[in-house]
Amino acid sequence: MQVVPREARLLGAREALLRRAPGRAAIAALALTVPLGAAAQPPPPLPPLQAPGATTFTIFLRGAPIGTEQVAVTRGADGWNIISSGRLAAPLDVVARRVQARYTPEWRPIEFTFDGTVRGQAQTIRTIVEGTAATSDIVIAGQTTKKSDTIDSNALIVLTNSFFGPYEALAVRLRTAAPGTEIPIYGEGPMVSFSVRVGESAPQQIQTAARLVAARRTHLTLMLTATPIDADLWVDDTGRMIRFSVPAQLLDVVREDIAAVSSRSVPISRPNDELVKIPSNGFSLAGTLSKPAQAAAGRLPAVVLVGGSGPTDRDSLVFGIPILGEIAGALADAGFIVVRYDKRGIGQSGGRAEAASLADYADDVRAAMKTLGERKDVDPRRIAVIAHSEGGLVALIAAAREKRIAAVALMATPGMTGADIVLAQQQRLLSRMTLTPEERQAKIDAQKRIHEAVLTGKGLDQLTPDVRRTVDNAEFQSLLASDPEKLVAGVRQPLLIVQGELDAQVEPQNADRLEALARKRKNAPPVESVRVPGVNHLLVPAKTGDVDEYGALKDAHVSTAVTQAIVTWLQKTLSPGR
User: Fold this and answer.
1) Residue 207, CB half-sphere, CA atoms under 13 Å: how many?
2) Model confidence over 28-52: pLDDT tens digits?
């Protein structure tokens, strides 16, 4: 349940979860430095680059857009041209009227040109390469400097500190470069030679508003003189660069179609997946519908998957694990039609996330139910809802309101009030920190005051502005007020409760409480509870289950014990004769 980081931040405990970046002195040659306290303003639009096939990139620093660059790659009789123009906003204030890198047909360097302004001061660079000799004329405010360097005759020429169109040449070289290859680089401004070591590559699918992009991500190590720096470069199915990222610098350069809010990574898919639109309350939810590989006669049972808290997309991607995506695949293999969707206001879904409460998300579940029930390949009497973490509370609300929901499965769902679950998560975090008993109690008391203010509306004016902004969120407010005892009492459908025994975010006693509440229902419908040893909150095998272990779980996948328990229950509960 991803409420821990949000609430922990209120008490200063979040630093325990942060992964620290390497020292930044080593990447001065790549740095785009914005002074502390200075906010980069969105740059004004660029005039169109007069070159065929030009694409636009957005340059992000610390997650904020600070510039744009238009890039074109063309082939002429004498070789290849990479041409770009761009602008970085104040306080950087850099304009590139023209950046050009010329190469032979074999991609050997010929010439590099930069013509632009830096904080209003005109600057030009022109470098001519002949074999291993690079001769540069640098003009700054009318003052000319000449420089000569010996470089590798196969070096690629890039700008090291502002614009990134010339990295298209690196994208080309990566098409044939094996892992371990070192590609020589000559960096302009300042003139410096270094190499890029090629790491492993992996395919990645990215769904844009227009099409599914078959991308490839390659890990790179920039072998600078002080400290090697990690980077990643993505190319599309034509070999063109779509993204360049230097995580230690919080620097991202992303092609506009990939950077759009309507685009999303597709970490998992099936050949017969369908993209679906789910009409909701004045907007549409974007989702993926997975089906059995072999077409079946008649109408099939179906499942709506519901993700947890926060900005959860349809796959519920957490630490590289597409939780709902993997569950959807397992259920489709077992003969079910499965729909999962981006939460409202997230990914390709419409609506506003900041105004949505748990009850609003329950309305979205009902909308997904309606969409499934109208399909000719779905049996509308056999549709279940399966939900993870906070999504389980949403599923319970939906089930109480929507009698057409045939059954509900809850995975790692809280069995205590939202306020209590947040306090339990906080206390687990605090137990891992070096604090005196007095300091620990002070933080607990502060969290309780926050809860009291949110639940009663009294004392909000005494919260700090940062805390006030954090709690001014309908989802969080409705989570604090949620009470599974009341929710379960209103659910008349069969229930399955699945709990990982190593869950450190929603601890196993929550499942015990949910089961007890379910059995107390009047004329109690069937309820089953499954404990899965060695599985954490993400439903994957783990050693400790702690949140700070998540990033170290390599090649982790949702446990087959989890998916098999759900499949077995669904086959029994949604059998045709029920």
Assistant:
1) 20
2) 444 454 444 444 555 566 667 777 8
Counts of helices then strands in the chain (DSSP H, E) = 13, 26
Q: Measuring CA to CA, which residue among 397, 402, 342, 348 is closest to residue 370?
A: 402
- Helix, strand, coil percentages, rounded to 5, for the chain: 30, 35, 40
Which residue spans within 421-536 are E strands per DSSP?
A: 495-500, 527-532
- Pure H helices in 163-210: 168-173
Q: Specify which residues 197 forms β-bridges with.
A: 182, 221
The residues that bridge with 243 in the sheet, in sequence order, are 234, 254
Q: What angle do CA 96, 102, 106 make, to 5 degrees?
A: 150
Contact of 406 with 574, CB cutoff 8 Å: yes
Q: What is the pTM of this model?
A: 0.78
108 Cβ neighbours under 8 A, 6+ residues apart: 129, 153, 154
Q: What is the pLDDT of residues 68-87, one digit of tens each?
A: 999 999 999 999 999 999 99
Q: What is the mean pLDDT of the chain?
A: 89
* Exposure of 155 in the CB half-sphere (CA atoms within 13 A): 29
The rounded distance, in Å, linking the Cα atoms of 515 and 322 is: 27
